Amino acid sequence: MIDHISIGVSDLERSLRFYELTLAPLGLAKVVTRPATIGFGKAYPEFWINLRPNMTPVAADSGNHVCLRAKSTGDVDAFHEAALKAGGVSDGAPGYRPHERVRYYAAFIRDPDGNRVEAVTFPGE
């Protein structure tokens, strides 16, 4: 249903370094570079970062977040660890999340601009 997503970042180079490391465990790499935007994906850009130089940090209570699919719990763990090493902040350590319909494993991070990004997998799917 969704073809691609994009988020705003205040510093494109900083965010490029952050997301190259953070998205690698999910199999996403930089595939397009333009003056004010960079696209990450497997075969085509699925996740874009867009330069917004006057952007203020995203408020923790904004309610916005992006969720990316991981192949395994190990990939979710690696995503979280890579984000922390790259300068992100944990917003939910890797683990199983209670839900009435499905059993899922996820981790949440905040990038240097406060964007909330989740990696999720569904063990036993």
UniProtKB/TrEMBL annotation:
Under Pfam families, the record lists: Glyoxalase (PF00903)
The organism of origin for this protein: Bradyrhizobium erythrophlei
Q: Which domain of life is it from?
A: Bacteria
Alphabetized InterPro entries for the sequence: Glyas_Bleomycin-R_OHBP_Dase, Glyas_Fos-R_dOase_dom, VOC_core
The name of this protein is Catechol 2,3-dioxygenase
**VOC domain mapped to chain residues:** 1-122
An MF annotation (GO) of this entry: dioxygenase activity
Sorted alphabetically, which keywords does the UniProt record give?
Answer: Dioxygenase, Oxidoreductase
